[in-house]
């Protein structure tokens, strides 16, 4: 069952007037139009035409949610939602408010429901919303609509989550969330480590070609099958985690030369950066089980290796 906004306004207005002003219920077409377009207790405020309300009534009649009443010269209309959906009075009141005023917190529902139903406390409102959200069997859900309410993400600064009905199109479950939510984090486990004569960061040259020594790449034993067909002479790329780098640096003098203008770290090879991932192109000199001896490598002893990739032999890309 998916009702459009006009159908929801018509149905909600009929429910409200039945409970709040029973002496004037059922409603004539003109009274119903006025109820739909009233400026109080409505969000959003609408200005529906007679044709729009008539069309909504026809659809609701087809769904058995509304029925005409012929007890005089002027046709009148009443809702049948409690019968069709097997609703309790508290559930009917809560759905009515959600249809007429959009998503609300339990506290807002309680304070606005005084003319429709008296909830003893917030726990009573919550229990009602929970029942509506949990409908899933034939006895409580004869129309097989499934859940009738849903909890929305809590808005920034709000103590309570809001609830929406599910009689119309599905609500936007991202509404109210921060425009720039906290980014996801990822866990990366090292596949091995570097063994090198370089023990401290200060000992390491900026590049392997600037006087770095040969080193050993030691792969974790359980991952050794990943080295199948590795051979001396292969060129590989090592991705390392530069564990001694500073992660709060965003600008540097390239080459640590103060005469070079400050440059954003994303345009440099500086090890200091938010995610200090090292990129090293080396040649395999020897394969010994889980160990690869490689050509000069500037990574210091103990540097975690997070991945190993081959250099593409027939491409300038790597």
From TrEMBL:
Keyword S-adenosyl-L-methionine: yes
Stretches assigned to the TsaA-like domain: 188-318
Keywords tagged on the record: S-adenosyl-L-methionine
InterPro entries: DUF480, TrmO-like_N, WH-like_DNA-bd_sf, WH_DNA-bd_sf, YaeB-like_sf, YaeB_N_sf
Cited Gene3D superfamilies: Winged helix-like DNA-binding domain superfamily/Winged helix DNA-binding domain, YaeB-like
Superkingdom classification of source: Bacteria
Keyword NAD recorded: no
SUPFAM superfamilies noted in UniProt: Winged helix' DNA-binding domain, YaeB-like
Pfam families noted in UniProt: DUF480, TrmO_N
Family as reported in the entry's similarity comment: Belongs to the tRNA methyltransferase O family.
NCBIfam families (alphabetical): tRNA_TsaA
UniProt cross-references to PANTHER family, sorted A to Z: UPF0502 PROTEIN YCEH
Protein name (Swiss-Prot/TrEMBL): TsaA-like domain-containing protein
Species this protein is from: Edaphobacter acidisoli
Lineage per the UniProt record: Bacteria, Pseudomonadati, Acidobacteriota, Terriglobia, Terriglobales
């Amino acid at each position: 069952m998916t009702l459009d906004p006009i159908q929801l306004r018509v149905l909600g207005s009929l429910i409200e007037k039945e409970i709040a002003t029973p002496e004037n219920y059922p409603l004539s077409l003109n009274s119903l139009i006025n109820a739909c377009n009233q400026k109080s207790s409505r969000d959003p405020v609408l200005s529906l035409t007679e044709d729009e309300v008539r069309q909504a009534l026809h659809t609701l009649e087809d769904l058995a949610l509304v029925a005409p009443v012929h007890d005089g010269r002027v046709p009148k209309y009443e809702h049948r939602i409690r019968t069709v959906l097997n609703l309790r009075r508290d559930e009917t009141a809560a759905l009515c408010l959600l249809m007429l005023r959009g998503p609300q917190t339990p506290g807002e529902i309680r304070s606005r429901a005084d003319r429709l139903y008296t909830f003893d406390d917030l726990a009573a409102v919550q229990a009602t919303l929970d029942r509506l959200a949990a409908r899933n069997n034939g006895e409580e859900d004869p129309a097989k609509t499934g859940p009738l309410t849903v909890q929305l993400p809590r808005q920034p600064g709000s103590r309570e989550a809001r609830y929406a009905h599910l009689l119309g199109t599905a609500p936007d479950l991202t509404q109210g969330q921060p425009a720039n939510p906290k980014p996801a984090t990822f866990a990366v486990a090292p596949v091995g480590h570097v063994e090198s004569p370089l023990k401290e960061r200060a000992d390491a040259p900026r590049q392997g070609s600037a006087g770095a020594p040969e080193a050993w790449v030691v792969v974790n034993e359980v991952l050794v099958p990943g080295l199948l067909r590795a051979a001396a002479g292969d060129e590989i790329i090592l991705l390392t985690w530069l564990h001694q780098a500073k992660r709060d640096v965003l600008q540097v003098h390239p080459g640590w030369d103060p005469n070079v203008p400050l440059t954003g770290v994303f345009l440099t090879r500086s090890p200091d950066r938010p995610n200090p991932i090292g990129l090293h192109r080396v040649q395999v000199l020897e394969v010994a089980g889980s160990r690869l001896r490689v050509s000069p490598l500037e990574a210091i002893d103990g540097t975690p290796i997070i991945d190993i990739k081959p250099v593409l032999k027939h491409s300038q890309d790597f």
